[in-house]
Amino acid sequence: MGINLVFNVDRLQFHLNAGLLKQQSTVLLKLLNLQTSGVSIVFIDDRAMAEYNFTYRGKHGPTNVLSFQAEALPAELSGNELGDILISVETAGREAGQKGISLHQRITELIIHGILHLTGYDHENSTREALIMWEKEQLLFKQLIQQRRPTMPQLAINVDHVATIRQARGITEPDPVIAAGICELAGAKGIVVHLREDRRHIQDRDVQLLRQTVKTKLNLEMAAAKEIIDIALDLKPDMITLVPEKRKELTTEGGLDVIANEKKLKKTIAKMSRAGIPVSIFIDPDAAQIEASLEIGATFVELHTGRYCDADNEKQRDNEFRLIERSAELAFESGLRVNAGHGLDYRTTTRIAALPVIEELSIGHAVISRAVYVGLDQAVREMQDCITMAGL
User: Are 237 and 257 spatial neighbours (Cβ–Cβ below 8 Å)?
Assistant: First the structure.
């Protein structure tokens, strides 16, 4: 039994994540103690929905969701089937836009609504039943969100600024390779370095040694430049993150414009894919950039958190947070894995870490700065505590 998804629309056109929808629907049946039952969820367009709506309800035009109970079938045919749910993806998309939520969130709401109809709830019977059904829908949606992620995101430490201090004197200390080892021993689950074309901090020798010594995961940040691409293909880090790069910037100033660089980035991703290297793209929290990242074959996106961290007031910070929250959901629902980073510190990290779809936070400057006062081991442990607090 279980959930059967049927797509009578172009799933790729709407960026529908079949695995996610099936997982959420399966969890929903479990929450209702119906895990041995079966439900078919059919995704259709407005035209088909309008036909069903007129045939079975005598109403013109499409609606968002229709439910058909299996009890209308003979017992020998229905078995444990609850019934069928029809969802118009086009109507759901319009409603999502009006509500300011993602398409997948709206579809999830409609699936909950449809399954409750199959189990006997009916908001059309009375105002009281409508309120009971609405409250049940809100509870189930909240329970689904709570089960989205069993663990907090992992902490990856960027050790670039250890190398920045070293390069200021042109000597051999402090060594970012040794710093990476301390970070791992303190609990970091990944090491991040940016090998810039101008080699202002991390050097070729650093990345070679890190590849040999990092025990967790090595993430190489890089521009899509031929020289650096060749180094990455030879080095074979655990993953790469494509970032924008300007010679005069102090640090990365914003996300990569995937749309403007689509052809070049697509070629780079193809090369990395053939070498078995997953690719993340560092982007601003923007729906168009997320869609472009998906289309060129990225595995991850890393959402730029800089504007959130640099906000001048709480209202502005709240607005930036909501943008990151919506973008993370959209990317995840589209089938991308989601990381985040840039500018995160001991005050701003916990809120981002609480977002249920983010797998990893890349943090560097705040930890290295804190290490000046308390030592690197303690600075990493304190940042890990900030992430852990997100689950409390």
Answer: no
Q: Is the pLDDT of residue 102 over 90?
A: no
Catalytic choice (104, 117, 194, 201): 194
Q: pLDDT digits over 22-41, tens only? A: 988 999 999 999 988 899 99
Round to whole Å and give the CA distance between 309 and 165.
24
2, 29 contact by CB (below 8 A) = yes
Q: Is 194 a catalytic residue?
A: yes
Q: Domain boundaries in the chain?
A: 2-146, 154-391
Enter the CATH code of domain 2-146. 3.40.390.30
Residue 207 to residue 26: CA distance in whole angstroms: 44
Beta bridge partners of 240: 220, 279
Is residue 15 among the annotated active site residues?
no
Angstrom distance (rounded) from CA 251 to CA 51: 56
* 147 vs 240, more confident: 240
- The reported pTM is 0.76
Superfamily of domain 154-391: Aldolase class I (3.20.20.70)
Catalytic residue among 90, 221, 329, 333: 221
Whether residue 110 contacts residue 65, with contact meaning beta carbons closer than 8 Å, is answered with: yes
Cα dihedral 205, 168, 384, 208, rounded to 10, equals 0
Name beta bridge partners: 38: 2, 81
Q: Could you tell me where the DSSP H helices lie in the chain?
A: 18-31, 46-57, 75-78, 89-99, 103-118, 127-146, 160-169, 176-185, 204-213, 226-235, 262-274, 287-295, 306-309, 314-333, 349-353, 365-374, 376-388
104 catalytic residue (yes or no): no
The set of residues, in sequence order, having a beta carbon less than 8 Å from that of 160 and lying 6+ positions away, is: 176, 192, 193, 194, 201, 202, 364
Quote the pLDDT of residue 391.
66
